[in-house]
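During the second year of the project, the team shifted from modelling isolated chains to modelling whole assemblies. The rationale, set out in the original proposal, was that interfaces cannot be judged from single-chain predictions alone. As a representative example for this report, we include one of the complexes processed in the last quarter. Its constituent sequences, exactly as entered into the pipeline, are reproduced here:
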Amino acid sequence: MIDPRLLAEDFEQTARRLARKGVDRQLLESAREAAAARRAAIVATDEARRELNSGSAEVGRLVREGRADLAEARRAELAAAGGRLAALESERRRAEESFDDLIARIPNLPDDLVPDGSSEEDNRVVRVEGYDAGAFEGRGLRPHWEVAEALGIMDTERAAKLSGAMFEVLRGGGARLLRGLVNFGLDLHRDRYEETVVPHMVRTEVIERTGHLTKFDTQAYRLRDDELWLLPTAEVALMGLPQGEILAEGDLPKRSMAYSVCWRREAGAAGRETRGMQRLHEFHKVELVSLCTPETSQDELQSLLADCEATLRVLGLPYRVVELCAGDLTFSSSRVYDLEVYAPGTGRWLEVSSVSLITDFQARRGGIRFRRAGSGTVELVHSLNGSGLATPRVWAAIVEHGQQPDGTIRLPEALVPYVGTELITG
RNA sequence: GGAGGGAUGCGAGAGCGGCCGAAUCGGACGGUCUCGAAAACCGUUGUGCCCCAUGGGCACCGUGGGUUCAAAUCCCACUCCCUCCGCCA
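Output from the structure prediction step:
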């Protein structure tokens, strides 16, 4: 949620900045009106309550002084005042609900550094690393699903028998490759990020406050008999951890990571680039998150980007860094770099990490704050997240890059100790 | 799953329905003293919201309801924690 003060104090500039994300000015005006109505309702109830409070104190005094008749008279007056207060309070509740509803629909402000644009088309390729277009031509490279099915390390048919579309079963070397990747990812980042094992199911309020559960976001799976949700990403658990707490400035930046299974309903994505390991309902990921001070968050974004890139670099996979334009940013983010790995079997760039600066947007809703060392004042932290290693697509890229003419798969050197072989043969 | 006990400020821990945003101790911070430190003594020490804003008001004692002129204190529901029993990786 954005700072509500912006609506009252800096409306025009806020509207201009949000327009870059395609936010309708009408929504902001409604929110501003709702904020004013809410404030008026607060003033009215506070005043009514003040009268009631001082009246009650007076009754207490009279009772103590033994003047029961006066106390009784005053009590009767206050009973009536109590009725008026109740009416004001229900009005206040209505005002707050309508304000909450509107403010929740306003996305985070895009960073001024973010390029203009309305869609994916306008995203800017910042850098391309390790990619040589000529290197893949004429080699007859096949998509990973063909290579993997032929080798018997992936079984889409039987996965469907178990669970339906957009699930995978991995066997033998394919399964070991997945496990090796996860361990590799955790080891690669363990010096800078605290390794954490988190529950894979979280309460409604936790997922709500991370911004991963809204009226428009039906991505997460919900358990039928308990008020719990399956993680769509470990970010939800890692960001849920400090919710409602006040951290010491000295503890920032606070960097942590978690491996988890991730579940996503992917509603509406059926049939779109879903073959093989491109898009699954269930996948494995090492997620990196960081909490930091507002003045360091841009630097922190760059260092998080560097850490996520390191994964692809060490694996020797060609990739590009794409900066999202204002219109393609997600609801909560103010600046995002996507890392896309090149998959030569399909000739596609696959998104394997979204390195996001959320500024204080997520911290405000989650109540994640820190105390300044000098002044002792309390402020919201900035939060960031990115995938340190997202298995399905990195797995796919490794299969496509490593495929040999005889159908086996040669692994990147860095993975050999983790998988226990240089060559996957089945 | 069954039976009990509990949830208060940074921590521990008090709190007859009114004088309780909350005793006391500890911690932290500032000061006095000291060459410096310790000790001692003095002081400060929650968060949010609102306003006619060097001041004032409102809310918050696990969460949500209720009773009452008035709730940390009474009632109801829920959540979590602890102990014991059962079950279990």
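The domain at 120-424 of chain A is CATH 3.30.930.10 (BirA Bifunctional Protein; domain 2). The longest strand of chain A covers residues 282-292.
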